[in-house]
Design a protein that fits this description.
The complex is a heterotetramer of chains A (about 280), B (about 325), C (about 270) and D (about 290). Chain B is mainly α. Chain B has 14 helices and no strands. In chain B, helix 7 crosses helix 11 (about 245-280), helix 9 packs across helix 11 and helix 11 packs antiparallel against helix 13 (about 300-330). Chain C is an alpha/beta fold. Chain C has two domains: about 1-95 and about 170-180 and about 205-260, P-loop containing nucleotide triphosphate hydrolases (Rossmann fold, 3-Layer(aba) Sandwich), CATH 3.40.50; about 100-170, no CATH class. Helices cover about 35% and strands about 25% of the residues of chain C. The longest helix of chain C is centred in the C-terminal third of the chain and has 18 residues, at about 185-200. The relative contact order of chain C is 0.16. Chain D is α/β, with parallel strands linked by helices and about 290 residues long. Chain D has helices at about 45-50, 75-85, 105-115, 120-135, 140-145, 155-165, 185-200, 210-215, 235-240, 245-255, 270-285, and strands spanning about 1-15, 20-30, 30-35, 60-65, 70, 90, 170-175, 205-210, 220-225, 230-235. Classes of the chains: A mainly alpha (about 280), B mainly alpha (about 325), C alpha/beta (about 270), D alpha/beta (about 290). The interface between A and B is large, with 45 and 51 residues. Chain C: InterPro entries: AAA+_ATPase (IPR003593), ABC_transp_ATP-bind (IPR050319), ABC_transporter-like_ATP-bd (IPR003439), ABC_transporter-like_CS (IPR017871), P-loop_NTPase (IPR027417).
Chain lengths: ~280, ~325, ~270, ~290
């Protein structure tokens, strides 16, 4: 039988499992990187610089994905890079989500002066170019994992606040909110017990999206050389190096780029998949 | 009357926003630990340099006084002097602005065309494999940001099939007869198609990288909006009059579906302009964004402030224009 | 019989933002223009009017979802006109509301059992589960429905859940705002019969808002006719139908198409 | 001879259950036929099938729809569209959403005349003015230049009626045209439709859930349950004595203020079960 809903569900299921699988794999790699990585990611050997990946003529055994200009093993650096990427994604994503969603929910449901103040801040934030803002913040705060996380939270809370605010406003106009009032529920209770469950699917989608964005922001900051300590392997740092030598050694750019691409895609698809799966109205 | 009221209200909030931006950019740089003068100076500066610079910027005064001095200057068009180049900030910034504007507008046009075609095709062929393919492409394009698309394009069209330039704004060996910095525009005016082609070939990849996410957003929003509109009674009524699918989409649905898309595209366009910062870096394109990153790396405080303010003016300006456009296209407001 | 509600010179206006001048306050849009009436304990009162008559606004003011801008509403001796939300809360158990659109008034992410139980928990009822079961029983829904989501029910079933939620609190007063206007005639008849039965069994006071005089005729002892925010007629229902005094009431009555081809409908 | 003749029309959700079960009905030239049933009974679906505006999620599985003797379902799509546009029209339910908000009223009345029937613009505009006067709209000249949002709901419904009669169609489908209106406005609009129908001699297929409305404007009616016609009768006969138990129960459930105790009687479960069994039997017969 060709039922539209079941087709949507099957596609949602596939992307949910694929993306969850990829992210699960990354988690395992992050934890066990020292045991999995074939080489020391920091070990340089100028005699083994710019070795191609294993299937290209001139490859060295042991360096599966080749080496960069300093002779460091690309594969090992990618595997170690997972650690920074994932910790930024999970920590920065979660904190940004909590801060932004709370402010958005308050603005959208409580309205009045709370909304006025929060909306004005959102407006001001929206007038900053986010990439420049983050680069500026890192320059001021100094490089490091903590600075990156702080910069992401400070800049990206509006992503949540804007959307959640609009959603909370729409939900606030529904009669189930009026009926909660008639039942004698207070404003805070209504916000948390009635509105929040209806906004949650949107928040989940935004959260996973934000985790992907956090990985990108870290990569961008590494790319302009402002991320964490320079010799720690990060995907962004590898991409920056790969970009400069793209005509001589494409593999230095391609492999971290593909990893980054898949990770970002997986995060966003995970969110969409989760939303479809746990929506009681769709189920 | 309504239109005027909306416009004036927006003008006021825009002013408030810009003041907010000015305050924040000013204090963020100074309040956070670290000596701003030390930040400004290149390594190896002497005590005397520090003292001179401190006095020059009035940094011995309390912060609010400093802010007022700076803000007063800004209002008179004086954004200070760049530390690294020793030139007025305003001149530097305005010199780079055309490059960034041309890139952004080109990206916007590409996004509207690609997104619009995707939305119309998806609507025309709804329920078929074509729509499914468009949805999947949109989903991919949407979840991956411009930075990654830029890298992918560099690999595909700069390395794998090297057909476009992936670095700079124009081939350096070319003689440029231009009097303005709007190269793309001026080359057309002067009928120098050889130069125009070279410039386009440089811009195409960065512009496409910027356009892809926005195209996906336009494609998705407009298609959804069109699909909702196609279920409305006036569209059904048009069908009973004997009109075919194309006519119904283009004449009955499109105009009404564009309105809700438009407001969101305004915000998204400012994101696109924000994206030029990293995309210009990626493609070594000599625009405002590339200059901004250099300014941060060189700790050129006045230049950073100037660029951020300019971006904020552009962003709020774009939003203002979109709001007015929305009002102008909406018959409810136009004829109120 | 004592009066449960005493409404005196009730006024309600909203700011008309579409005609706000450049500077200064927006003009006020008068929705309710000085209403006076009472609702005695145990009465079933119909409130009827066309769109824009202010009947729904009046209903929402009665249960204090809206705050009046003038006049007073006394509920069982207490002036609730401007009572702040915190002081209103303990009173709220006693006046309940059933909404027009059950799809929007039932939280889509809560199961039916929780929707009925939650208000009781808020008011500190004990034995909530047993009370939910009894409420479902009262409105003729099987116990298994407690585990369902609103979107899994039909329109008539959803409206029964709305009724169950209201009666579970054992209120003194229920406001029913156009509760059958979205239903088919067969479910309409069922829901109305149910409501009639419950009002009699539980000794409730009911205000029934509707645009449909035929339904009012069946259910209500007294009818208030609203036209553009003012009461044009307030009488015993039987009298109102046999001898309408106000021109608007007559117009309303004459416009109703009876299921009868011989009706003179000029 | 009947102008619209539907024979054994079956429609179903693609890959799903049937929505119309071998529906047959006739509308003679100049006749008004009511289509009555509860939501989901398929009454609107019949109107949509006649006008060729079935949603993409449903498909016709059998039967024919003869409009002026020509089977619409046998025509190629473009030809069918043109033929429907030239001979039939729709009066939609909700006047607030049935006019395009970004187009002027004038163009929305004349477009069919100019684009489909090939009239000259001037002639079409003159016709539009004439029609607006006929539906008692003051200042037709000004209204033609208005946008929908500048007019009240009642005015918009009048415009939609005028627009439906613009091309002198032989058949009009009215899909719950007064459900969104107050009773007092409903009365005016129903009288207007009935008057126009009589003057122009148009056949009218009147979809409604309200038996009261049927008794006022229709000469015959079809009662539907689960996509099946359970009763087909002259209006006078029906209200005197409905033949089918389900339609009798439907009539008893209809509110009637003159006799409150005899109206609003819930449809008995036994009646529902009986009519369901009937539908099931018909389905088996249809497949066997």
């Amino acid at each position: 039988m060709l039922d539209g809903r079941s087709m949507v569900r099957r596609r949602a299921g596939a992307r949910l499992w694929l993306s969850a699988g990829w992210l699960g794999l990354l988690c395992v790699i992050a934890v066990f990187a020292p045991w999995i990585a074939p080489k020391d990611p920091l070990a340089q050997d100028l005699f083994l610089g710019r070795l191609p990946p294993f299937w290209v003529a001139g490859a060295e055994p042991g360096y599966l994905l080749g080496t960069d200009s300093l002779g460091r093993d690309v594969l090992s650096r990618i595997l170690y890079g997972v650690r920074v990427a994932l910790s930024v994604a999970l920590v920065a994503g979660t904190i940004t989500c909590i801060v932004g969603a709370t402010l958005g929910l308050m603005a959208g449901f409580l309205r009045g002066w709370v909304d006025l103040v929060i909306s004005r801040f959102i407006d001001i934030w929206m007038a900053f170019p986010p990439v420049l803002f983050s680069i500026l913040l890192i320059a001021v705060l100094g490089p490091g994992l903590f600075s990156i996380i702080l910069a992401i939270v400070v800049i990206d809370w509006t992503r949540f606040a804007r959307v959640v605010r609009a959603e909370a406003m729409a939900q606030g106009a529904m009669d189930y909110v009026a009926s909660a009032r008639v039942a004698g529920r207070g404003r805070l209770g209504t916000m948390v017990r009635e509105i929040l469950p209806n906004v949650l699917p949107t928040i989940v989608v935004l959260l996973t999206l934000e985790m992907g964005i956090a990985v990108i922001v870290e990569a961008i900051l590494s790319f302009v050389n402002l991320s964490i300590a320079t010799d720690d392997p990060t995907w962004g740092g590898m991409i920056a190096e790969g970009r400069t030598s793209v005509h001589q050694a494409w593999w230095v750019l391609v492999f971290p780029l593909v990893t980054l691409f898949l990770t970002v895609l997986a995060f966003s698809q995970l969110g969409e998949g989760l939303k479809d799966r746990f929506d009681p109205v769709l189920r | 009357m309504q239109l005027l009221r909306v416009f004036l209200l927006r003008l006021v909030t825009t002013a408030v926003t810009l003041v907010g931006v000015a305050v924040i950019v000013f204090f963020v740089i100074r309040v956070v630990p670290g000596n701003p003068i030390a930040m400004m100076l290149p390594p190896g500066a002497t005590e005397a340099d520090v003292a001179a610079l401190t006095a020059l910027y009035g940094l011995d005064k309390p912060l609010p006084a400093q802010f007022l001095i700076w803000a007063g200057g800004v209002l008179q068009g004086d954004f200070g002097t760049s530390i690294t180049t020793r030139q007025p900030v305003l001149g530097l910034v305005l010199g780079r602005l055309p490059a960034t504007l041309e890139l952004s507008v080109m990206a916007l046009v590409m996004a509207v065309v690609i997104g619009g075609v995707a939305a119309l095709t998806g609507t025309r062929r709804r329920g078929t494999r074509v729509e499914g393919a468009i949805d999947i492409a949109n989903g991919m394009a949407l979840s991956v940001p411009d930075f990654l698309w830029g890298l992918v394009l560099i690999l595909l069209f700069g390395v794998l099939v090297p057909v476009f330039h992936i670095s700079g704004r124009v081939t350096p060996s070319l003689e440029l007869p231009f009097t303005t910095n709007f190269y793309l525009f001026e080359s057309l005016i002067r009928l120098r198609f050889d130069l125009w082609l070279d410039i386009v070939s440089h811009m195409l990849m960065p512009a496409l990288a910027l356009a892809v996410p926005l195209a996906a957003i336009i494609g998705q929003l407009l298609k959804q909006s069109l699909k909702e509109t196609m279920h409305l009674d006036y569209v059904t009524l048009a069908r009973t009059k004997g009109y075919g699918e194309n006519h119904v989409i283009l004449r009955e649905a499109l105009r009404n579906a564009v309105l809700p898309t438009l407001t969101l595209v305004g915000v998204q366009f400012t994101f696109l302009i924000g994206g030029t910062v990293i995309i210009e870096r990626l493609f070594s394109y000599e625009g405002l964004g590339n200059m901004a990153i250099d300014a941060v790396i060189n700790r050129d405080l006045p230049l950073i402030q100037g660029i951020v303010i300019l971006f904020a003016v552009i962003f709020t300006g774009v939003n203002l224009i979109v709001d007015l456009l929305y009002a102008a296209l909406n018959p409810r407001l136009r004829h109120a | 019989m004592a009066d449960l509600y005493t409404i005196t010179d009730l006024r309600l206006s909203l700011a008309d933002m579409t005609r706000k001048p450049l500077l200064g306050a927006a003009p006020r849009l008068e929705i309710l223009k000085g209403l006076d009436f009472t609702i005695p304990k145990g009465a079933v009162v119909g409130i009827v009017g066309g769109s824009g008559s202010g009947k729904s606004t009046l209903g929402r003011a009665l249960v204090r979802l809206l705050e009046p801008s003038g006049g007073s509403i006394r509920f069982d001796g207490t002036d609730i006109t401007h009572l702040p939300e915190a002081e209103l809360r303990p009173l709220r158990r006693r006046f309940q509301m059933i909404f027009q659109d059950p799809m929007s008034s039932l939280n889509p992410r809560h199961r039916v059992g929780r929707i009925i139980a939650e208000p009781m928990r808020l008011h500190g009822f004990d034995g909530v589960d047993a009370r939910v079961a009894r409420a479902l029983d009262h409105v003729g829904l099987p116990q298994g429905f407690a585990g369902r989501y609103p979107h899994e029910l039909s329109g008539g079933q959803r409206q029964r859940v709305g009724i169950a939620r209201a009666i579970a609190l054992a209120p003194d007063f229920i406001l029913a705002d156009e509760i059958v206007s979205g239903l088919d005639v067969s479910s309409q008849a069922q829901v109305l019969n149910l409501l009639e039965q419950l009002v009699a069994d539980l000794g409730l006071t009911l205000a029934f808002i509707s645009h449909d005089l035929s339904v009012i005729r069946r259910l209500c002892q007294r009818t208030i006719v609203l036209y553009q925010g003012a009461i044009v007629e307030d009488r015993a229902t039987a009298d109102l139908f046999s001898d309408p005094k106000a021109a608007y009431t007559r117009e309303l009555l004459e416009a109703i198409p009876l299921p009868d081809p011989d009706q003179v409908w000029a | 001879m009947s102008f619209l003749s539907i024979r054994e029309l079956s429609v179903r959700l693609k890959g799903g259950p049937p929505l119309l079960r071998r529906v047959s009905l006739d509308v003679a030239a100049g006749e008004v036929r009511g289509l009555v049933g509860e939501s989901g009974a398929g009454k609107s679906m019949i109107g949509k099938a006649v006008l060729g505006i079935l949603p993409g999620s449903v498909e016709v599985t059998g039967g024919e729809i003869r409009l002026d003797g020509v089977d619409l379902l046998a025509l190629p799509p473009a030809e069918r569209r043109r033929r429907i546009g030239a001979t039939a029209a729709l009066i939609p339910q909700d006047p607030l959403t049935a006019l395009n908000p970004s187009r002027r009223i004038g163009g929305q009345i004349t477009d069919r005349l100019v684009d489909i029937l090939g009239w000259e613009r001037g002639r079409a505009e003159a016709r539009a003015r004439e029609l607006l006067a006929e539906v008692q709209i003051p200042e037709p000249e000004r209204v033609l230049r208005n946008y929908p949002h500048e007019l009240s709901g009642g005015m918009r419904q009048r415009i939609l009626i005028a627009s439906a009669f613009a091309a002198e169609p032989k058949l009009i489908v009215a899909d719950e045209p007064t459900t969104a209106l107050d009773v007092t406005v409903q009365k005016q609009i129903l009288k207007l439709i009935a008057g126009m129908q009589a003057r122009h001699g148009t056949a009218l297929l009147f979809v409604t859930h309200d038996l009261g409305v049927v008794s006022k404007v229709c000469q015959s009616l079809s009662v539907l349950y689960a996509g099946m016609v359970v009763e087909d009768a002259r209006v006078r006969d029906f209200f005197a004595a409905p033949k089918h138990a389900y339609s009798a129960a439907l009539l008893a459930a209809t509110p009637k203020y003159t006799d409150p105790m005899a109206s609003l009687t819930p449809v008995p479960d036994a009646v529902i079960e009986a009519v369901r069994a009937e539908v099931a039997a018909a389905d088996r017969g249809g497949h066997g």
